[in-house]
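User: Please predict structures.

Assistant: First:
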Amino acid sequence: MRITVAACAGLALPWLGLVSPANASAAGGGAGCSAGARAAFQASLVKQFNKTYGSGGGFWTGAPSDPTPYTLFNGSSTYERPGVAYIALRQILGPARFTAALRQLQRVWG
């Protein structure tokens, strides 16, 4: 069984979160090739980021480096916060460089 970068690097939630942007892309004109589809995909990622980043309460209070047995696989620090970080990294690097970085991670750590 081969474990992919998506699982190893904490990309499970962002990849699951791409279902909504992919649907937005399809509604925007196609499978990611048209400008409308790319714009819809990007807008959906921004919407997802803003929603998660604006979470209140205890969402941002737990330290990811200090999980309890209860929060190890059941908390925002495990799935949602890393997902938002990857969306932010994609915004910083841009789609092409982000994809290249993921491919490099796969080659090195595959």
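Second:
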Amino acid sequence: MTDLPRRAPGAWLAAIPPVPPRRFFLRRTLDVSGISGTGYITACVRFDDGTVAMRWLTEHRSTVLWQTLDDAITVHGHGGATVVEWVDGD
């Protein structure tokens, strides 16, 4: 058995980022590809460093990480057919 360092009670609070992750959905108004459908197609979170985790809600579910939200929209925005709907405020 190894000796793990012990943390003081409440020390886990120091690991919480100063800005909590912000949740949002991508909603598709027009299915350009004929694959993902319309309506809410992903559930997402943006972390304080700008990284986005995207969970597809479609028949073929997957989880994808993006460096930025702009990168994800460049690929999945389909010229305005997909909109970001924030769950959490600023």
